[in-house]
Design goal:
This protein has 124 residues and is mainly α. The protein contains six helices and three strands. It has one domain: Orthogonal Bundle (Arc Repressor Mutant, subunit A), CATH 1.10.10. The relative contact order is 0.12. InterPro entries: HTH_HxlR, WH-like_DNA-bd_sf, WH_DNA-bd_sf.
């Protein structure tokens, strides 16, 4: 896309910092974690049960990355024993509608994508 193709082209930057952020919030597990946490705050093991295919190490790395980017907050609950809860941060909550739209889009368009993949694979 060139800069004259869109009236807001100057606002639609895709330089290194933007690509890095997009990579980190659209990676394999981040979308699912954000989607789940938009529903309600959860403890680590609750998240693991909610997303059973994610491993402990991957979930830990994802939560740390999302926390570093301000999307998720890690809250220490002063009970006995101490508990850690993860919740969506205000900036992460702004992604809620976008994540829902992306997930709806993938559900609606997956059959067409699968047909396109099959056509491509058959040609090779």
């Amino acid at each position: 896309m060139n800069e004259t193709s869109h009236p807001d082209a100057a606002l639609l930057q895709v330089d290194a910092p933007h690509r890095e952020l997009l990579d980190q919030i659209l990676d394999k597990w981040s979308l699912q974690v954000l989607d789940v946490l938009c529903g309600r705050p959860m403890r680590f093991n609750e998240l693991r049960r909610e997303i059973p295919v994610v491993g402990q190490k991957s979930l830990t790395a994802t939560l740390r990355r999302l926390e570093r980017n301000g999307m998720v907050e890690r809250v220490v609950i002063t009970t006995r024993p101490l508990a850690i809860e993860y919740r969506i941060a205000p900036i992460g909550d702004t992604l809620n509608e976008l994540i829902d739209a992306l997930l709806r889009w993938t559900t609606a368009n997956m059959p067409e994508v699968e047909r396109a993949r099959a056509r491509f694979d058959d040609e090779e």
